[in-house]
Amino acid sequence: MIIFRNLFLVVFFVFILSGCSTFLRPAEADIFLEKNNRFVFPPPDSLGYKVSATQLFHGQYGRHQFDIQVVVEADNNELRMVGLAPWGGQLYSIKLSKGKIEYKELDNSRMRINPEYTVTDFILTYWPISVLNNWISKKGLRVTETGSNPVTRTILDEDRPVITINYKNKDKWKGKISFKNIKQDYSFQIETVRVDIQ
What we know:
Layout (H helix, E strand, L loop, with lengths): L19 E7 L1 E5 L4 E4 L10 E11 L2 E11 L3 E7 L5 E8 L2 E7 L8 H12 L2 H8 L4 E6 L4 E7 L2 E8 L8 E6 L4 E12 L1
Antiparallel strand pairs: 1-8, 2-3, 4-5, 4-13, 5-6, 6-7, 7-8, 9-10, 10-11, 11-12, 12-13
């Protein structure tokens, strides 16, 4: 069995706070907690292209809902994700490079995310299916895609669906995306409002 933690748990700030904390971690994660397995993230260049995008996230976890804007940049060396507050300030940033994850957040904030799980969900959504299957197949998982437009991507654990990702457009950077973690009962929607692909 696998456990994918919540992508974002957002509780908006009561006050605008200054200062930030920085955490540096190896580029691996205990995603499969019941099996106590660790794995290394695929390198950023395995996405296959460079991209810069601004996205709107709306999600739900239990009774909690959130809306947040995220700026994403990926190139051959790094994947960078920056979460922005409604007033435009930076709430957090995540940088995945070969061998490490760097995570920064505002000091004393009420918002807490797990950078490893945030990156995991993003990679599952956008990375090529061939890369994903090579990445997770040794953990008893596999990824399938059905349909042409719209497209549904399903992550299976021993043939049981644990995550479904529905794309309104076959171009995954156009149209809305609905991500559902069946195991952990959380979901979010992504709308890309700006994208530049090279």
